[in-house]
Every structure is written in structure tokens, then in C-alpha cells.
Amino acid sequence: MGKGQRSQPMYSNEIIEAPQDAGKLASSGVFQTVPASSSSLLGHKDVECGPVAVSAPAETKVQAAPKEIPHEKPHEVQDIPFFTLMTTYLSFLLLVVLAHFEDFFGKIFMPKQYLQLRVQNGYAPMVSDFESLWSRHVYARMRDCFNRPIGSVAGGHVNLIDRVTRDYNRSFQFTGKLQNVLNLASYNYLGFAQSEGPCADKVEEAMREHGITQASSRVETGRSKLLVETEDMVARFMGTEAAIIVSMGYATNSLNMPSLVSKGCLIISDELNHSSLIAGARLSGAAIRVFRHNNTRDLEKQLRRSISQGQPRTHRPWKKIMVVVEGLYSMEGEFCNLPKIIELRNKYKFYLYVDEAHSVGAMGKRGRGICDHFNVDPREVDILMGTFTKSFGAAGGYIAGSKALIEHLRLNSYAAVYAEAMSVPVLAQVSSSMRMIMGEDREHALEGQQRLDQLALNSQYFAEGLKKLGFMTLGDPGSPIVPLLLFNPAKMPAFSRECLKRNIAVVVVSYPATPIITGRVRFCISASHTREDLDYALEQVSEIGDKLMLKFHKDVINQDTKKLE
User: What pLDDT was estimated at residue 32?
Assistant: First the structure.
């Protein structure tokens, strides 16, 4: 088929080609931005959020974005000690063996506890014993580390509602107490999660004028003036012709992708893409192929094979080929290799879908996401998707692109036709926070850029601090997500509980959300964190690392220090 898989357009009867002057625009400096400067940061006070900007030491500099990300796995993952690797596998094996052992004898001596796993009155069990083995015996051991209820705004600090268990995490009882902790678990990248301040005031004004909700989908009576204005603002913010807003972030992917591709089309997806992308791809009915994470060489092999062989059995050309990636991978803290992927797009003429749920607002000198980070023309990406649940302190998501694309989605997307329109308070939060980032709020013209600068400084400071302490971390420089590898399944609940004792809230992640050997704790950095907050966290994490023997690079760092001396 060669380069002809765009013979059927994505959404209309016209062939949509990449803009011919895209490279000239990028090279001419249209999309270049002014470097962040710590000297421009001004003090700012928030209620739950804490200070947004804290002056940084002179030696702290924000590194320029790399032109291309390496194809291979990070150096840290390649250097996993053999002893750690073997003990991790053996630990999981031991957990599974003990789980089967407990189930075998439990069904004999405690049959009442296994009634839900047996056939009752002719009804098969909803979940079999093997399907629920992981949740009953592995997740249950560390259930107290997840779903911790909060009693305040999830800002730089948050109040956890204290709870206890007396039956080994089967149930919990509230004690009535609150514990104020440093919040390193929320996606509050720019610190807009606030109950007071300019955004909260705008939300209150909007509710008094427009009410709470339109109680309808957008194709009926849900298309309000506020919704149209916010969509226009999102399009300007992303540098595209138009945008559509969806009231749920997960549904932005899962309910819109089936409107773009269908049977006879091909989706080539990164192996670590989010669950919402996987759900949307499966609902579409298109064929799905997977390439190795962030490996553009493997992506090109998949493209060449797919184009040359066509559809299975018939070998007819694919109606469309769409490559799906994320701008910032939330479990790895890594950026997609967007410049190289766009190079392949221009060569093989496929459609490019970029999920910017975590990168928009948090990446780039102007907060425009991964395109801003790499100084890439947004029109080089066919479909730009993002959410408002992270950097904007709101909810829902958007898709930005050409006007023809958005008009197609407004008439054909399940999210537009059947789902309710975004509520007024959420729209007001999105528009007010985005105006601040864009510098269009006259009363707070500098505050948005201050938050962007502070997030970049905080992210780099914390990531470098962990590496200097000898921890094995993942992620690219400048990422607000900093994963620290724990490996052993027993160390995940231990790390979380030790952090909670020291008034720090973190998120630990394990299989099946990550590969089985790379269990980790995922630190989420925010502009609302002060330098004192980060220093305290590094100090406490260092103590926990010594206690749990997590400093795998400590010897290497000591050797480098001796060489410098």
C-alpha cells in the first residue's frame, strides 16, 4: 500500500494532509518560549495550597528539553541488581503459593468464608476463586495503603481521615481524627486545587449566574454560552482550530476513539498506554497492534509491516492507521519521543493521537504540554487529547484538532450525544485557571507563569535530590512525576506506612499496573510545595530508604564523591 493509508480521511470526505509549512513555523521561533527564570518568581499565599512560588538557590537551573528521547530502557532499569531481581520474583512466587495453600485448607475448615466463590442455588459465582486470588491475598495485605479518605482540599498538604482495622484490612473503622500530611500523591501539578482564591471566586460567580448544571447532553439543551467560550479558549490554548469538552476524563478517550476508527482500521498503540486508551481502542472494533514502550524503531517496524501486508487474510489496504501515544506516561514519568514520531508520521502518513492527560499544563515553558516542551507545531498532531483533572484542578477532558475533526465528534461521539454536558462549576474552574496560565487574567497576570516556573524548579530539585541520595528512579528531567523503584512487594506497604508515620502521603504501585519486577512509589510534585516541604520529604525518604535498603546506587555515588575529592 506504500504511503497511501490516508486514502480514507479520519472524519470527513476530504483528505487531510499535514501542513506544508509546519517545519518552517517550528524553526522560525513561532512556538519557542522564554526560558523559565527563578528570579521572576514572586511570593503568593493560598489557603489550602500553601505558597505557590518560593525562590530557588542560584545553582538550580531548569534544563532545556532534549531534542530526542533514547529508544532503549532507562539506564537505571538495566542496572537492577541480580539479587534484587531474584528476590522480587521469589517473593511474588511465595505469595501466590501461600495464597493457594490458604484457599485449599480454608475451603475445608472455614467453608462459610468461601460461600461467595461457590455455586449457590444454581447461580454461578460472580468472580471465581482464581480470578479473585490476587485481590484477596495480595492486594488485601496492603489495602490500608490505598483509598485513604481525605477531609480537606487536596493541596500541598491534605487532611487524612484516620481509620483503623481489626480484621486484617477486611474492614475499617473511623476514629474521628484528622492527620495533616504533606501531599505527594495528588496530580495537583500547578496548585489550583483550592477552596479559596481567584479560581474559587470565579466558580462562585458562575454558579450564581448559570446555576449548577444544564441537566442535558450538549446536543439537546446542554450547549451553554460558558461551554462554547471555554471550548474556544481550549482551542486557543492548544494552538488548534477547535476543541470539544467532555465531562469525564476517562470517557474522553474511551468514548471518542470509536468515532474516529472502526473495523478495517488499524490502531498501533504504545504498550504502556492508559486503560482508557485501551478501552477506546477495543470499543472501536479496529485491529490493534502494540509497539514497545517509547521505542520508535519498533514503531517503524510495525508501520512497515502493517502497510506492506495490509489487513489479515484479504491483504487489503487499511482504511486508516492511527498511532496512539501519551505525552507524559504517568507510571514512568517519561515523555513520548514526539519529534521522532512526527518524523515517522510525515514519512508514513498515519494519523497521530496524543494523550496529554498529564503533560498539558505541567509541561512546556507556557504549559501547553508536550508540543510546547519540544517546540513542535501542534498542527503536526492530528488529535490532541487532555484532561482538566490534573493541572487545572477541575474534572473532565477535551479533544483539540482541526475544525472538521471537532464537528465530526460533536455529531458522532457517544460522549457528545449521550453524556451530560460539563457542569457550570467545573467549566468555571477550567476557564479561570486556564486564563491565569495564559496570562489573560488582568488581576493575576503573572501568577500562572509563576506556577509553571515553580513546578519546573520543584520537579528538577526533588528528582535530583533522590538520585543524589542513591535511589533508583525513573523518568525524564523536568517530569512532575518521579517514580522511585521499590521492587519487592513487601517493601511497598512498608514504604507507604513509614511515610504515613512521618506525615507524608504517597502512592505505591505494583503489578498489574506496572511490570511485576518494578513495583514503585510515585511522587507527584506540585507548584504548591515549598522548598521546605521538599527538603523534609527528601530527609524522611532517605531515612526510610536506609531502613528498607532501597539505595541501590549508594555505592556508585560514594565512589563518584571520592573521585571528586
Answer: 36
How many distinct helices (H) and strands (E) make up the chain?
Answer: 18, 15
Closest CA to 401 of 333, 322, 335, 330: 322
pLDDT of residue 556: 52
- Alpha helix locations (H) across 367-504? 370-373, 403-412, 414-417, 424-438, 447-469, 491-501
Reference 284, options 312, 314, 319, 317; nearest CA is 319
Which tens digits make up the pLDDT trace of 230-281?
999 999 999 999 999 999 999 999 999 999 999 999 999 999 999 999 999 9
Helices (H), 261-337: 275-284, 296-309
Phi-psi region of 381 (alpha: psi -120 to 50; beta: other; left: phi over 0): beta
372-401 mean pLDDT: 96
Average pLDDT of the residues in 419-423: 92
pTM to 2 decimals? Answer: 0.84
Q: Give the least confident one: 57-66, 98-107, 379-388.
A: 57-66
| 8 Å CB contact between 399 and 198 | no
Question: Smallest Cα–Cα separation from 340: which of 319, 330, 355, 325?
Answer: 325
C-alpha atoms less than 13 angstroms from C-alpha of 175 in its C-beta half-sphere: 10
Residue length of the chain: 565
User: What distance in Å separates the CA atoms of residue 368 and residue 364, rounded to the nearest whole number?
Assistant: 6
Q: How far apart are CA 58 and CA 411, in angstroms?
A: 53
Beta-strand (E) ranges in 56-202? 157-164, 173-183
- pLDDT tens across 435-465, in order? 999 999 888 888 999 999 999 999 999 999 9
Burial class of residue 304, CB neighbours in 10 A (0-12, 13-18, 19+): exposed
Four-point Cα dihedral 345, 346, 350, 353, nearest 10: 50
